[in-house]
Amino acid sequence: MADEEKNGHSGMRLHGEMLSTSILAMLREWNAHGYQLSKRLAESGLPPFDSGTIYRTLRQLEQDGMISSLWDTSASGPARRMYSLTKTGDTMLSAWIESLQKYQAFLQSAVAGQKDRLDEKEQPE
Amino acid sequence: MADEEKNGHSGMRLHGEMLSTSILAMLREWNAHGYQLSKRLAESGLPPFDSGTIYRTLRQLEQDGMISSLWDTSASGPARRMYSLTKTGDTMLSAWIESLQKYQAFLQSAVAGQKDRLDEKEQPE
DNA sequence: GATGATAGATGCAGTATACAGATAGTATCG
DNA sequence: CGATACTATCTGTATACTGCATCTATCATC
To answer: Closest Cα partner for A82 from A29, A27, A40?
Structure first.
C-alpha cells in the first residue's frame, strides 16, 4: 500500500481488464499494431502498462476472438501485427462499458450516503 | 470465449480492484462484517464474487491499512470481524474513483470517435 | 559497426483467483 | 439427541495473471 504516487496513480492496480478493454476501445477507432497501442496508452493518463503484458494481452484477446491480426510488412522497419476489432470484441466492449457504469454507480451511491458517520475517530481535512 | 452470460455479465472480469474498492465504498457508509458485505455484493448487480476471495481481500485490505477490524461477539452465532474504513482507505477510495473516471472517459471517447470508420478498413496517418 | 528507435516475444518469480472444502456457533425440527 | 440449515470465517490447491528483465530482429543514422 501507499507504494508511491508517481503520477497521481494510486497504489492499487486494476490492470487486467482495464488494459484489455482500453485496447478494444482504441481498436474501435482505428486498427493499430501493438507498439502504437502501447504508445497511446502511455500518453493516455491511465496507469502505466508493461509492454510485455500488452503484447501478451493482445495475443490473449486474439485467442478469445475479440480481435484479429495479420502481419503487416508494408512499412519499413520490423514487421508488425495489425490488429482489428471483431464483432465479438465490439459487443464485449459495449457490455463492459455497461457493466462499468453499474460499478461506478455502485461506488458513487455508497460514497454519497457517507454523511451519516463523520464522527467516531478523527476529523479529516 | 463468451464463457456465459449469467446476469448479463460479460466474460471479462476485473474482480481484483472492483472487489476491493466496492468493499471500501460500502464501508464508507457503515461498518460491516464480511458476511454482510458478501451478501450485499451478491445483490448489487455487480458480477459475483467468490466468498473465499472476499475474506482474503478483507485481510489484505487490513494489512494494507485501508480498513481495520475487531472481533464482535455481541450477537449470537459465530464471532464476526467488524470492519471499518480507515482514513487511508478513504483517501484511496477517492483516488480510485478519480482514476476510474479517467478510464471511463478514455473508453467513451474512443467509442464516440468510432463513427469515422464505419466503412473503411484502415486509416493510416 | 555502434547506437537507438521500432516491434514483438519469453522466462521467471511473485501474486491473485476460482473452486472446493474445512471449521464452528446457533437454531429448528422430529 | 441427530440431522439439517444458516451464519461466519478461513484455507489448500491448481491455474492464471503480471511485472521485470531480457531477447530477437529490422531499419536509420552516425
So the answer is: A27
Residue B84 · residue B33 · CB < 8 Å: no
Q: Which amino acid is at A25?
A: A
Rounded Cα distance between B34 and A55, Å, is 37
Chain B interface, mutation test: which of A106, A118, A121, most B Cβ atoms within 10 Å? Answer: A106
Inspect the interface and report whether the beta carbons of A28 and B102 lie closer than 8 Å. Answer: no
Question: What is the 8-class DSSP label of residue A48?
Answer: P
Share of chain A above pLDDT 90, in %: 69
Give A53 to chain B, closest Cα distance, Å. Answer: 16
CA gap B106, B110 in Å, rounded:
6
B99 has a chain A CB within 8 A of its CB: yes
Q: pLDDT, tens digit, for every residue of B49-79?
A: 999 999 999 999 999 999 999 999 888 889 9
pLDDT of residue B9: 44
Greater confidence, A100 or A1? Answer: A100
- Grid coordinates representing A84 are 482489428
Cα A93 to chain centroid, rounded: 11
pLDDT score for B113? 66
A119 CB neighbour count, 10 Å cutoff: 7
- Banded pLDDT at B7 (limits 50, 70, 90): very low
How are beta strands B80-85 and B32-33 bridged, if at all?
Answer: antiparallel
Do the chains contact at A106 and B25, CB–CB below 8 Å?
Answer: yes
Three cell numbers, residue B98? 478519480
CB contact under 8 A, A31 and B121: yes
